[in-house]
Design goal:
By secondary structure, this protein is mainly α. It contains 5 helices and 2 strands; from the N terminus they run ββααααα.
């Protein structure tokens, strides 16, 4: 159970912080960067939740994902150990990634096939979901590097989860543009080029 009595501790004043394992690392440590990016994503997703308040199906899903993102942050902040017992630490598991895939399929089912890339635009919510998508992609790149450097200590399911999550945000942005009547705003290659 989480219990926060004091908000400031001064323990980070020297540029270090403590992982869930108790290890002290620099605040620029790649693991800190990974779960810090997930925290940033969750804050951006909070804005998407507010913008989705008139669509309970979408809003409920986004808040559901916020809980997953706290799980993911806990996972990334706790390096795995050899022969770790099941449930010894909070980890992202395959069923959480599968749930994202099921939502991708459900929300994508009635969308028109794409004939071009879409611009990150449209409704305010769709644009915010594109911000969430790009922050997710950044988190994914950082976690990929973390796995490359600390693979034995990092849950590979976290990378799969982030990969599917960015796809889900893309589909949800298209879905919101569709249900709002806005529709996709497609990229037109070389639209602004002028010959000299």
């Amino acid at each position: 159970m989480v219990k926060l009595n004091k908000i400031y501790t001064r323990t980070g004043d020297k540029g270090t912080t403590m992982l869930t394992s108790g290890d002290i690392v620099p605040k620029f440590d790649l693991r800190i960067e990974a779960y810090g990016c997930v925290d940033e994503l969750n804050a951006q997703l909070g804005m998407a939740c507010i913008l989705a308040k008139d669509n309970s199906k979408l809003g409920d899903l986004l808040q559901y994902i916020q809980h997953d993102l706290f799980d993911l942050g806990a996972d990334l902040s706790t390096p795995m150990v050899a022969d770790e017992a099941p449930d010894a630490a909070l980890r992202i598991i395959a069923s959480q990634t599968l749930a994202l895939e099921q939502n991708i399929d459900e929300f994508n089912e009635n969308l028109a096939p794409l004939k071009s890339f879409v611009l990150p635009n449209g409704t305010t919510l769709a644009a915010q979901l594109h911000i969430c998508r790009t922050v997710t992609r950044r988190a994914e790149r950082i976690v990929a590097q973390l796995i490359a450097e600390q693979g034995a200590q990092t849950n590979v399911e976290s990378l799969k989860y982030l990969n599917r999550l960015s796809d889900l945000f893309f589909v949800l942005s298209r879905y919101d543009n569709e249900v709002s009547g806005q529709g996709d705003i497609l990229w037109k290659p070389a639209k602004n080029r002028q010959s000299l």
